[in-house]
């Protein structure tokens, strides 16, 4: 099933609420722009992956909707107050209403280091399983959950979702050289790790605008 064209469902909280754990690094003013930059770099990289047919962002944020649509993503309004897994289920239903045979994967919006070639490696492996997932860099959560045509996504994101997805019968994808797909950014330490890996241009610019830790600014050159 290497030839599958995937629809990626990318969930994104309203920016004023997103990435709350980055408040100590970014402050309340710059945190929303950092969250938007992560989402833009994630979506831009995903859209250039040859195995991706479509990126559908589920969000209620007007600025993110405008900016991500301008990059070439499709967008859908969230189900307000229902949370992350409901948003993913909503995106999955939209994708499959448009194309019953769609292969659908949920991808977090906080992967500023994402490299299209590494995403292609993950999606190619996911195409050989019915339902599968990739653990995050910490080995606790999940950055990507994939379901081939006819398989329900059945998302169980949030906190220790690696164990939850495994218990639900999804196959864990154990792959080398896919660090950029696993490198989600929740904390200042995660951001340092992402910068060391290389981030997309919007995240690099947003980090340079931070007035806080000089160590972060110094390593915020773009380049993945
Ligand atoms: N559409 C939508 N996306 C969500 C929702 N909750 C979380 N997300 C997104 O799901 C992904 C993982 O979410 P988290 O890391 O838990 O949340 P976050 O806002 O990124 O970070 P924290 O505020 O620090 O928890 C991110 O892309 C979020 O924007 C929701 O209720 N609706
Ligand atoms: C929602 C998740 O991510 P985070 O670690 O960003 O909360 C998850 O891994 O299931």
UniProtKB/TrEMBL annotation:
Annotated keywords: GTP-binding, Nucleotide-binding, Nucleotidyltransferase, Transferase
Reaction equation(s) it catalyzes: phosphoenolpyruvate + GTP + H(+) = enolpyruvoyl-2-diphospho-5'-guanosine + diphosphate
Pfam families: CofC
InterPro entries xrefs: CofC, Nucleotide-diphossugar_trans
Pathway annotation from the record: Cofactor biosynthesis; coenzyme F420 biosynthesis
EC number: 2.7.7.105
List of residues binding phosphoenolpyruvate: 142, 158, 161
GO MF term list: phospholactate guanylyltransferase activity
Highest rank taxon of the organism: Bacteria
Gene3D superfamilies from the UniProt entry: Spore Coat Polysaccharide Biosynthesis Protein SpsA, Chain A
Family statement drawn from the similarity comment of this UniProt entry: Belongs to the CofC family.
Cited function: Guanylyltransferase that catalyzes the activation of phosphoenolpyruvate (PEP) as enolpyruvoyl-2-diphospho-5'-guanosine, via the condensation of PEP with GTP. It is involved in the biosynthesis of coenzyme F420, a hydride carrier cofactor.
Protein name per Swiss-Prot or TrEMBL: Phosphoenolpyruvate guanylyltransferase
Gene source species: Streptomyces millisiae
């Amino acid at each position: 099933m290497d030839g599958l064209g995937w629809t990626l469902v990318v969930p994104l909280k309203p920016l004023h609420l997103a990435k709350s754990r980055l408040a100590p690094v970014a402050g309340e003013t710059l945190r929303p722009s950092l969250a938007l930059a992560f989402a833009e770099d994630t979506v831009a990289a995903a859209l250039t992956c040859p195995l991706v047919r479509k990126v559908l962002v589920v969000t209620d944020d007007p600025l993110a909707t405008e900016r991500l649509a301008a990059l070439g993503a499709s967008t859908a309004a969230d189900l307000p107050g229902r949370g992350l897994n409901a948003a993913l289920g909503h995106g999955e239903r939209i994708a499959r209403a448009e194309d019953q045979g769609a292969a659908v994967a949920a991808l977090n919006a906080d992967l500023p280091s994402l490299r299209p070639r590494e995403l292609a490696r993950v999606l190619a492996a996911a195409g050989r399983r019915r339902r599968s997932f990739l653990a995050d860099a910490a080995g606790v959560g999940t950055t990507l959950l994939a379901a081939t045509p006819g398989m329900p996504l059945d998302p169980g994101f949030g906190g220790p979702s690696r164990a939850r997805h495994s218990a639900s019968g999804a196959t864990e994808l154990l792959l080398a050289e896919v660090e950029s797909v696993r490198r989600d950014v929740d904390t200042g330490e995660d951001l340092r790790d992402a910068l060391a890996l290389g981030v997309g241009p919007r995240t690099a610019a947003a980090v340079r605008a931070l007035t806080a830790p000089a160590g972060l600014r110094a390593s915020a050159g773009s380049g993945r």
